[in-house]
Fold these 4 entries.
Entry 1:
Amino acid sequence: MNTRQHAAAVALAMAAGSFSGASLADVRIGFLATLSGGGAALGQDMVDGFNLALEERGGKLGGQNIQLLKEDDQMKPDVGVQAVQKFIEKEKVDLVAGVTFSNVMMAVAKPLADADITFVGSNAGPAPLAGKLCSKAFFFASWQNDNQAEVLGKYATDKGYRKVYLMAPNYQSGRDQVVGFKRFYKGTVAGEVYTQLNQPDYSAELAQLQAAGADAVYAFFPGGMGVNFIKQFKQAGLLGRLPLLTASTVDGTQLPALKEMALGTLAGSFWGPDSANPASKAFVAAFEKKYGRIPSQYAAQAYDSALLIDSALKKTGGRVADKVALRNALRAADYASLRGAYRFGPNGFPIQDFHVFEVARDAGGRVSLKQVGTPLKAHQDAYAGECK
Amino acid sequence: MSPELLFIQALNGLQFGVLLFLMAAGLTLVFGIMSFINLAHGSLYMFGAYFAAAAYQATGSFLVSVGAGFCGVFVLGALIDRCGFFVLHRRDHLDQVLATFGVVLFSNEVARMIWGASPIFMELPESMADSISLFGLSYPAYRILIIAVGLVVAVGLYLLIERTRIGMLIRAGASNRSMVAALGVNIGWLNTFIFALGAGLAGLAGAMVGPILSVQPGMGDPILITTLVVIVIGGIGSIRGAFLGALVVGVVDTLGRTVMPFVLRQSLDPETANTVGPALSSLAVYVLMAVILALKPDGLFPVKKR
């Protein structure tokens, strides 16, 4: 009796062992994004983009079965840290990807680095992580935060705008954006206005702007603030009269709420849905078919993150235990990216082209983004030199 | 800063104040007469904007959309009062704050589930999207309409409360509800009417801002805080106080945002002015509230004690 029980227990343990052994062979990826609260639209697009890449490959990346674990950080750094600790300690993930906002990114960077987890970023690219606090285990398939402002600064200089008026919300990212713009803008600053974070009404600032006699405006108003700002800019009769250069103000999550009202606005980005790149065309068509909307750049970044992981797992034959080999494979960025070929700098941020887009109608008559120029080619962020 | 620009900014302040009044009128009515603190007032404003945007998308008519904002939230207000909030009328203020704060979180998630996390589309019809020229600066014509609607509502509320039978009952109910009930008036339904009217005004405010603001989950939260400041400054429970308090807050906030950085730039170097200016201007309204509370704890225009 006793031996039979013992044998049964051993058999059970062996069965359990072989079963968990099979699941351990899968690659486990923790995906952190903001899925509730004011920033949820961005996070949802990221999840949708990443899922699309997985589905197209039958739930595999690099030929490996993928177990995708999703967590919502609610745009709160402490919640993000808890989620990452859960990924590392409880779920034993091999890779972490995603992260929507820079405040969460700054908070989760340390636990990720301490546990020596390989990280593939899909949006947030705060300056410290590109400079002094860079990590050899982090790869950002997106861009460094300053870049979208820098390309507009270069564009304003190229266009010969002499007096540009700068507007941004009064918080770290808003101030960073203004610094980024000024880094490449050679003219004079007609005025610099910092509004309250999540301020709904900009009528007072727009009146001041008109009185300042600027010949162009640079604005950074992410999320709902951008929708407020563009509506009011248009209603004040300024859109079309003053060139409006924006970052994160008329992106794919905001345009559906603005439609024709935003026509003529300029935006800086590394990618747009009108890209002629074959990989990008296929992605846009597949995304529209599945979700019924034009993908935003956030969806593209997350999709691209999945492709990057796919390429690295292919190279290493799916072995994730050899972290050095995995990271070398990621660093090669050897895949058909939606933005075209790029390479990683020493800080894990891409060296890539940045374009300027105009809000215009696409071939189907819908309001979307149309590329009008590429002021910065093979552009590297300003902090790479500080990464030792 | 030129006098013309100052005038435009005062107009902007007036417009913001009028919008705040639409919110504050409902909040102060409900608090003053029913002694009920409703933090979910901002959610009613959000639903007003969503109803208006949905009606606009369906019909393309601005008038219908404003009607949908007011009527839709009036009915919604009546329903939530009858289906739950009436229980809270007799509870203490802390219970009311906790329960209605829960409703705020619930409402934001409901809006997200129905309409999605992204802002939804709402625009002005071509006929109203024009701007007019004031002293060489262009000013959106729609803002003038907001001011006009706010003033009409203010006059209408005054007439309703001071000159009609139902207004008389409302005032009587505020003074002594058991006496009014003893005289055969159904005070429960009277309260529901007041609550629904306040909700409808919040819905109207939401519908009016739909074309100029982003219609998205949580859009009512920032304005609720400013509205609370308005009714504290104006004197809780007083419509007159809400009106004047809203104008004071609107003008102080707008001028604080524009004149203060200008003044600072004259005296400090630009770098410091750019750092200190936005921080100070966002404080202006709260400093005003602190000063007024210190000098007149009941607000500027308290309800006369009867």
Note: The mean pLDDT of chain B is 90.
Entry 2:
Amino acid sequence: MSNEYDRSGEPVVQRFTREFLGEPNRYQIASAGVALLALLTVPFWAGQYLYVFALASIWAIFAMGWDIISGHTNYISFGHSALSGGAAYTTGVLVHNVNPDMAMYITFPLSILAAIVIGLLFAVPTLRLEGPYFSLITLLGVLVLTQLVYIYGEYTGGELGITAVSTLTYNLTNLYYYTLIPMLLIGAVLVVVSQSNIGRILRAIGENEAAIESSGIDTTRFKLWAFLMSAITMGIGGAMLAHFYGNITPSTVLVVDRSLEMVAIAVIGGMGTIAGPIGGAFVFIILRDEVLTVFGSTGRWLALWLIVLFFLVFLRDGIFPFIWSRIGSIGGGRDE
Amino acid sequence: MSREPSQQNRDSSSNSDRTNRRTVLKTVGAGAAVTSIAGCLGGSGGTGGTIKIGHIMPVETDNGLGSERSAQLAVDQLNENGGILDNDVELVTADSAAQPSEAHSAVTEMINRENIQMLVGTVVSEVALSLADLVAENDLPFLITGAASPRIFAENHAQNYDQFKSIFRPGPVNSIKQAEYLAQYGQFLSEEHGWDTMAVVSEDAAWTQDITDMTASLLEESGIDVAVNERVALDTNDWTPILDQVESSGAQTMIGALSHIPITGMTSSWSRNEYPFSLDGVMIAAQSPQFWSDTQGTAEYLSTATSAADGFADITPKTSEVMDAYQSEYDSRPTTPTFVGFITHDAINLYAEAVERAGTANHREDIDSIVEELQATDFEGSYGQIQFQGPDDEYPNDVYPGEGPGDEFAPFTITQWQAAEDGNGIGDTDGTKRCVWPETYQNGDHQTPSWM
């Protein structure tokens, strides 16, 4: 990545795109623009897929939340659904046990807070440890939380779950924009973070943490900040998912399978790129809920995980970085 | 010959995809606003000569597939007799995979893409509960045919009848009644065999809570010693400690409530090791007509609660009609409609009669007439006589349970796996099911295991 800052006369927009998107050629800019426009106009060209697209937006939030910590620093979390599920359950438990009419402006911030607290409890102590401990403890975190939901079934509804949560809306067009716009905003913030110096340090931690530490940077502090951002993102997504389905059950929001789906989405889309996982979420959810359904409900999962395996073996960087660099090489290619 | 209902659905869904796409293009061409497109796609509820019935079940289970095929059977029979209100009837089915989120997504799609006029299905209570708001919002008639939680009605209808009025349960009776009946069955066993000690073993899931709480205490009240009342984890693999515990307690029967935990291993372990007690209760896997072959015959003497005696007793004249029609159409697993299949078949037919009486199936514009006629239902189904509880009853729109398990209304039956005479077993096996309780529908005596 180039680090030339001596361009004082450069227009703001140009400088911004150079800073945050590298130096995209016009094809790359055009295709990013087309993708954005396509997302904004889904009701006009894929009206019958609005529900799936709305769900994909929420999963894009989860995948980005995972990506900002795990995709960047290589501290791989296998338990991110503990954060989103914790948030969803906070919304549900408040509505179910405290006040069925509790307003979203109260439940939403509390749900995000819950995601942060869960993150602090399970992950933060382990961010100092190297090796597999972070992954193992996040994995255990989600298992512990799932069992707690069953044990405290009186408050959480056990495997029956909580159905008292109000649904965002039954108008699918509105539902789509209610999920898309927060997703794009979160995406914008995280892309900026990812492309800033903070993002560079996070990626550098992933490549060689010892080297970064020896240059005097307190890596734990950066990892903490990344984790905090991740937890907030997961909290927002989790609370949204609760209101999306209008019900919260362990299998919908919490179990370890949901964590693995987040990892798979980020892998398919392109780890460590933020925008990649957004695209990955749409690919993954559409495959899962539309395309692979021809194999039946069990066969569909088999096909899905085989596809993920294929990506891990043959396209480890993910679809979107691959496409991005291909488009970048059109017309001579300024790719490094 | 077996048919492929899902193939038909795929064809029909691609038809409606085309229609929708044309609608979209036209509207975009006209430059209309986003919301008007949603209006077009949502549909008005009136369809051109076809009434679509949605079916949601975990179709990879025997109960789910039996229900799907029985629904297809009901739809075919309706079409042979002129359809509903002179419209053709079409079945649209989706797999819930027993997951609330899957079901919620699938039903949202069925409502918005397929424009279904009625929904039937669900065996898992959390699935039914999670669909309540969605179908209520769309004023969609929803007939629940397997899920037994009383919460569906206590938490919705009893709080706001008008909002949830389109949701009914033609059967089975709710889990509180089931817990009560199970205790009565225990008393029957006690009288029949002189047993005075019993064990109640439930899997640790919400649907069994009433059995843990009520069945055991009702048994105690009637003078039976409940030596074990255990809840076992859903991931139980090794049954030896539990079977040993029941044996050492001196119980003469273990009344189980087991659905999620596979019980084929437990059953063969119980039979091969000749544990000295009988196995009874609500054993979902044992409801399958293939349970005998699944357990290589060790299912003999095991009995389970079910509806319609799984088709092995003539509960009403219609029971054998549905059973025969099903068996002439399908010869693969499950080879009988399963208890859910009977109720689903009944649900579709009683819905057809109700909308015929109402003169409309247009739920979006005239749900009140449809609900009124559903409420007025007095239908002789294949699993029993079906009426619904009134809006002011404890569980509005839930099936009227009658006076007891042997009543003509919503009967509750127990079948036992027994050896068949002269090769008249299910499929190529030498096992069959007989209805052993209640007496009204009994066609065989409850047998104690030969080794007891």
Note: Chain A has a mean pLDDT of 88.
Entry 3:
Amino acid sequence: MKILVAVKRVIDYNVQIRVKEDGTGVVTDNVKMSTNPPDDNAIEEAVKIKEAGKATEVVAVTVGEEKAQETVRKALAVGADRGIHVKVDGILEPLAVSKILQKIVDKEKPDLVFMGKQAIDDDCNQTGQMLSALLNWPQATFASKIDVKDNKLEVTREIDEGLETIEINVPAIVTCDLRLNEPRYASLPNIMKAKKKPIEEIAASDLGVDVSPRLDQLKVEEPPKRKAGIKVANVAELVQKLKNEAKVI
Amino acid sequence: MAVLLIAEHNNKELRPFTLNAATAASQIDSDVHAVIIGQNSADAAKQLSELPVVKKVLSVEAAHYENFTAENFAPVIVKLAENYSHIVCSANTFGKNLMPRIAAHLDTSQVSDIIKVISPDTFLRPIYAGNAFATIKSNDAKKCVTIRPTSFDPCESTGGSAAIEKIDASEEFSNTKFIKREEIKSDRPELGTARIVVSGGRGMQSGDNFKLITEIADKLGAAIGASRAAVDAGYISNDHQVGQTGKVVVPDLYIAVGISGAIQHLAGMKESKVIVAINKDGEAPIFSVADYGLEADLFEALPQFMEELNKLNTIQK
């Protein structure tokens, strides 16, 4: 079984983002960037499945500008075998990314495609489902547990009401929840070794996919700020305030 | 062209956020049709027909729709889409799972999780865990839009009498098989719609200690929330998680106990009307969004809180 894992470079989850003054987006210059957190879970799960002898190869793919390659390099350092970087500049909507990934799937013929359930920058939560639609493959979204059984996967999904278990036939798409596993850290020797692993570079323009945006981002602004609150001295004061001032209890 | 609302239900009745999505749909265009896909779901279809904002109901029932599998639902909606300008549903796990599958089939760039309809083609949506708001204009002929339920009031649920039209089922998608759903049943209000939410974080230190929260929640008629850290640590089940990748809640009162207030948690609760933070770390970021902050050890504060609430009741009586 071959597993393709899609990873995205985003502003690090610990960074307090700043909106640009001209309203065109958020500040990314000199801001720490990392792999989208649930994409780390996707890589980890693929590597674990390979370590368990149930997969033969793990290929990490990213779609984006020059520096996006860092995320593939990181995936290689934690156990992916080789990488693919589809180079494209500018804003990419999930629909465009899924069309590019479809071309990569056509070329690589993986049995499974893993990725994070949502990117923490645009918070769209679309790419996995869109790719699975384009391929007409089954989709297991928000996965918190995966059991590989021959040519099937049993996947536990996190849904609003609790948990749901489904069985999907391979080939299939799985989008990963943060609770799926605990991503490992790359050791220094593995980081060195990863530098020798191959990353194939492909120009998006060579894939024959229209990636032009369909959405205009007219404005990006700060959300309304909450007015500063107060500290209360003790529980009695808190309850009195809630009762008599805020009138919520 | 009319707007098509995808109803969310459990085959017996509508799920509450369908009413919020109906409101959003009616703000896009007053001509709202609603599709309900299920099995033995006639009662839910009837309920849908009674929403005054819904002008027509399309209903399809088949065994393979019983468990709401996106792979089975998407073809039904894709087939209907030619008659509609917009497809709308909630941005909860139901809609998040389903809508992109429809959008990709229609070659449409979806607009996810909107919090405001500015015009039929322009929407406001949070990005970066709600730390920025983006105004997005869609240039696609057909628009697929998911809405943040807590940003739209539920519509009226009675008084309408839309016609219910039966439509044909699509073929079953055989590569996905539903096995089971583990729903956590509770007599408490639903987290997403509760007026008061009491949430615990890593500071609770154990699942057992959550009973301090449960007690207060029951006293206040509140739902119970949790930070991701608390769910990850196994103190409480995932359906309680509030945050960027969990549920977004907008109660009148949100009480955060032992929650430090990571950006990802704030994303799920900072629009609450009144926020209370109880934390022994006075520097915790949760205090920056709290209307009332109490710097205290929660193991002392919560029993006192319960005592004070009991006193209130005695006075009232």
Note: Chain A has one domain: 2-245.
Entry 4:
Amino acid sequence: MRIPYYPGCTLYTKAKPLNTSLHACFSAIGIELAELPHWYCCGTTFTLARDNRMSLIAPLRILAKAQQENGKVLVPCSICYNTLKRANYMLNEDIETLDILNEHLEESYDGNEIVLHPLEFFRENEELIKSKVKKNLKDLKVGCYYGCLLLRPQQEIQFDDAESPTIFENFVSLIGATPIDFPLKVECCGSYLVVTSPDAALEASYKLLRNAQGNGVDAVVTSCPLCYYNLDALQEKMAKAHPGFKQIPIFYFSQILAIALGVEEKNLGLEQNKVSPYEILKEYNLL
Amino acid sequence: MSKLLIDKDFKRRIEEISDQKLSDCYQCGRCTAGCPFANFMDAPPNQVIRFMQLGLKDDVLDSQGPWLCAACLVCQTRCPRGVDIPRLMEAVRAIHLRAKEGLIDVSEIDKEFLLDAPPLALMSAFSKYTY
């Protein structure tokens, strides 16, 4: 079985560990990730101005390219997923805009492509994943951080309930680790404010990590390379601003799945983590 | 609040760009209560909307609220009147940026940060703060 795959720009640069570990996971479960032959930036972020049709061209081109492969495309980056899914929803609602934009494309798009996140794929293939788990992650207490883009707006994304989602926790249970709930799992990490208002992003990320720690997590898991950056790379500054803050490792969901599936350490991409994940993994005999 | 200059064209422009109806908001304040960045804003979301409802163009355009909106959509999820508040904030940014005001100056971004940050942090910021 093969599934069309759209990695997006960041998975080729700063979020390589997400790309490498996800490829290793799919190879371990016997599915080929077939990267789209032609792809571009998704045009992040989805435009909220209704008169800005220009911003829809980038996601539309990707959807049109993906449509030539199969009815589904797998998108692991939360921002790409949100941008493509919202553009898809909008173009289905607004046929006039779709027609106008199609006139500018080499190929035309009919609005029927399904944009799928790996966590949705795992939800649909629970038995397959379960049968391939090799390591016991029971002791690892994981806080599942959803962030914004996988959940909102709920009507358009339809990934899970926007206020109290469980798909991520179910995934963590499925691979044998222990999910820990924390209230701020759906709150914003500060996103792109890290570029323009770094203090706001730092405080938002600090607040949610503290909330996760207060509920007893060993590590926080996410799917978004920007959340990952804010939660991982900003911890040094958090420690300076808030003496006594204890740093905590951050993983991509694909990294803990890869660990559970017994993927070789060199394909986990752990060396890029700013906060070392090795101590906790060694403590639980997972490396 | 500065001088009361009611501008109906401005109201209409905000409604056009955002595709939202300002009179739908009944000022319950739930958007501000849930906003993770409201405490960094001079005027929080419900107040910016009140300025819009009153047609107070200068107050809307001078407010820093829209620039601290991360489009996280918590307010949109919780608004009991179905107002898509992040679209209203985007409309304010769009009005500024289309007049070439408030653009990011890339040369002012810390070099070390530029090399370290993931491309989508920069792309997202550019799509919100440039035009």
Note: Chain B has two domains: 8-99, 104-131.
